[in-house]
Amino acid sequence: MVKPFVPQLVYVEPRALEYPLGKELIQKFESMGIEIRETTSHNQIRNLPGDNDFQKYRIAKSTLVVGVRKTIKFDTSKPSAEYAIPFATGCMGHCHYCYLQTTMGSKPYIRTYVNLDDIFDAANQYMKERAPEITRFEASCTSDIVGIDHLTHSLKKAIEFFGESEYGRLRFVTKFEHVDHLLDAKHNGRTRFRFSMNDEYIIKNFEPGTSRQLERMEAARKVGDAGYPLGFIIAPIYLHEGWKEGYKDMFERLEANLSEASKKDLTFELIQHRFTKPAKNVIEKNYPMTKLELDETKRKWKWGRYGIGKYVYTDQEQQDIKETLGRYINHYFPQAKIEYFT
Length: 342
Known about the structure:
By secondary structure, the chain is of the alpha/beta class. About 35% of the residues lie in helices and about 20% in strands.
């Protein structure tokens, strides 16, 4: 079992103390005896502890910044939702392949935003513009929001906010089992609670600092039994020796661990492993012993967002992935919906 995240070091932006959640969090961290430093802005954080880049990176991953979200314009979040809703950035996990490696750059600390009402007001505006169409909001584009929510309860507030909305739906995904405080949230079926799931080889070799496969499955069962629409993101789908057996075992275990209630409204999203040149450089620097295969000559090059190309599997490999995993899902979860493969 992975222990719930507790930061080693907390930075607070002065404006955060103008909000009830900011005051509450700082009081909580003071009572826990955690070192708290003030910073005018997260961009001004310098001199994180550590003797070298390796140590600094790891300490940054256990540093939390309590701040105010200044940009309330939401990014788009295709194909999973219309918009990304920003409650936090950064993650305490150490997944070798993670795209946050490059987007977070040299500052992989975690930030949580305390001006929730501003964020909810913006969400209301986006819903109004699209009404009566449903607007989906993705809460985990830049973080594993569940991983810090036992401290902040921002996600719980968001679940209840969307639970009362007519045209809004909330979605997020996690690799953590710490869901108990979310089970009694008044979600009214308007939040899809998803778990990132993978075969044992990938979780063991590439996802340190996250909950194990069985722990995620047990948490998913609790969530399904609490009436949430449930989903699984199988990502990254990674081709290794024995991958077909590995994924078959995973689906078999998942089917055995979920209750019938959990399987009623089930979705799967399938995302193949991909990497960019900049990501490869950062991964090899931060995880020099990784077994992750990052050989461009074995991949197909594809245009990505913002003009940055990425390396994906070949067309034939992609077809094999789609057919194999599609067959497993249809066999073990015949009522489930496969939302996309990318």
